[in-house]
Write a structure and sequence with these properties.
Layout lengths: L2 H10 L1 H18 L13 E11 L10 H9 L2 H10 L5 H6 L1 E6 L4 E8 L2 H22 L3 E7 L3 E3 L11 H26 L6 H8 L3 E6 L3 H6 L3 H4 L4 H15 L41 E7 L6 H14 L4 E5 L7 H4 L8 H6 L11 E2 L5 E4 L8 H5 L3 H8 L4 E5 L8 H5 L5 E7 L5 H14 L3 E9 L21 H26 L3 H24 L1
Parallel strand pairs: 6-13, 7-11, 7-12, 8-10, 8-11, 12-13
Antiparallel strand pairs: 1-3, 1-4, 1-5, 2-3, 9-10
Amino acid sequence: MTLRDYVKIFRQRWWVIVVCALVGGGVMFVITPAKASDQAPTRSYTATATLLVGSVEGGGGASMPLGRIALYVTTGEVPVRAAQQLGFEDDPAVLAQQISVSQDPAAAALTISAKNSNAQVAADRANVFAQTTVDYFNELGSGTTLTVLQAATPIADSPGGAVIPPNRALRTGLGVLVGLLLGLGVAIVVDHLDARLRTRDEIHEATDLPVIAEIPKLPRAERQAQSIVVGQSPLSVYADGYRAARSALLHAPTIPINTEPPARSGTGGTFGSWEADDTYGPVTATDAAPGGSVVMITSALAGEGKTTSAANIAASFAETGKRVLVIDADLRSPNLHELFDVPQGAGVSDFLSQPKAISLSTLVRPTSIEGVGIVTAGTQLEHPASLTSRMEPLIQAARKLADIIVVDSSPILGASDGFDIIPLVDSVLLVVRSGRLTAVAAQRVAELLKRFQVPVAGIVMVAVPAIASDGYGYGYGYGYGYGDSKKRRGKKTSQTASAQAAEPDLMAQITEPAPEAAASQSRGPRRNARRAVGQNQDA
């Protein structure tokens, strides 16, 4: 992985890092006392007694080697006597293991050391072992004399390694730092375990399909309102994203988007009235002439935003002056009519139940978007799978009613209904929500679409997290004043006010003609009158 990959992971999993840092700091804050002691707690004490080794005759050297004397200190009779004096009830050998003896041949001296967390215990053990050794050798009569040069005094051991500061603020900061480092590691592990696709490159790599448009994540208020942003907020970056999908469909070589409206006989109707015309339907696949192009909007799973995308793409097509017909073919969960504020009624399911008795044009309802009509899912939705298998007459009839037909189908991996519609359309548009689809599901969808050999225009990626940027792309800082800073907006406001103040003078100059223009205008009627008189005389 490159540095950019790690940065991307940390940006996506920033909440994991923040939580770990806060937990680390909070735990350290709780376990640290508010008032720290002035001195750091001592872990252990060491007491050392020093013995000088000599001979009875006062010669210059010891008759017994220092190594053997050290051996007598930790084995044999000396530990037994020392254990009795100290009241040590366990094996004397265990007590001897807590004593260390070192030799200094140059000085003919031995040092006996004891270490314990209690200072008095360490001093007592060292002094008892030293005195017991001296008494033992005096009784032994080996010609070697031992003298206690210095009794043991406990000395606190200095702690080694890193020392944790006793101050609560410093410890809390240290806990935050440790939690931050732990959070970075957890973020990397979670990213490897999480197989959901969040970026354009990940979706393209999993599906091998181009991402033709990226729609930023809508604010919560607009998501709850369920509005069509292309019609409600035409200058927003969200509407521009759907226009990018429309442009990709218009210029895609795989879908024949007609530049001329479908040929119609009779008076027909507009999307404002949708007057019934029996010429339009019902029709069958044999006598249907080529007409409008059909685009199917689908997704892999439910809740990825395909219905919202279908409504906005239809509205963006209507902006170009084309007649657009939206068909709600998701008979299992029909809610496209709610976006267009159209009540549910007779529609797709009713037409498919009686295709020869109902004209499709009578089922089309106008919407709040000019140039867009809708055929709702209908009222007979008991067996949606059996109904979608008979969609061919409806699609052929729809081709004669509009230039663009947008079909909102059921999710591919959620139901089999969409598989009956795919062979009837000209192109398929796949909607993928960022952070919802897994790599396995994406590969499965791509595999199923390739089996039908239907041109797939690409993928519309919705709910893309916005990235702060001042340039093009999805930093959303370009166009329509959405990326202006407060200073620039203030400047624009002052310029607008100045322009409005100067507007009356400018309008006066425009409406009040100059003397030459006034004279020319006054001569105009007389010239026209003379021309009319001349024409009458010629007649």
